[in-house]
Amino acid sequence: MAGTDEGDSTAKIIAAVVSMLESHGYDAVQLRAVARSAHVSMDPEQSSDATDRPSA
Which of 10, 16, 19, 54 could form a disulfide with 37 if both were Cys (CB 3.0 to 4.6 A apart)? Predict the structure, then answer.
């Protein structure tokens, strides 16, 4: 179920951001570091909802 996967990814991303903010401050929060810490892909082709988006 895509909605559950998306919700799980969202929770992982939020947890990663909060952890970075608490331990290293605002400057530590960078997109690549968040994705790495949350174990999610930044590639929209690998996203669970990639088929919902119009292609460019």
Answer: 16
Structure tokens at 3: 């909605």
Instruction: Give the DSSP H/E element, type plus range, for residue 15.
Output: helix 2-24
Q: Which residues contact residue 1 at a Cβ distance below 8 angstroms, ignoring those fewer than 6 apart?
A: none
Q: Mean pLDDT per 10-residue run, the chain (56 residues)?
A: 74 96 94 94 69 48
- Within a 13 Å sphere around the CA of 5, how many CA atoms are in the beta-carbon half? 10
- d(CA 13, CA 43) in angstroms, rounded, equals 15
Let me know how many helices (H) and strands (E) the chain has, helices first: 2, 0
The CA distance from 25 to 39, in Å, is 20
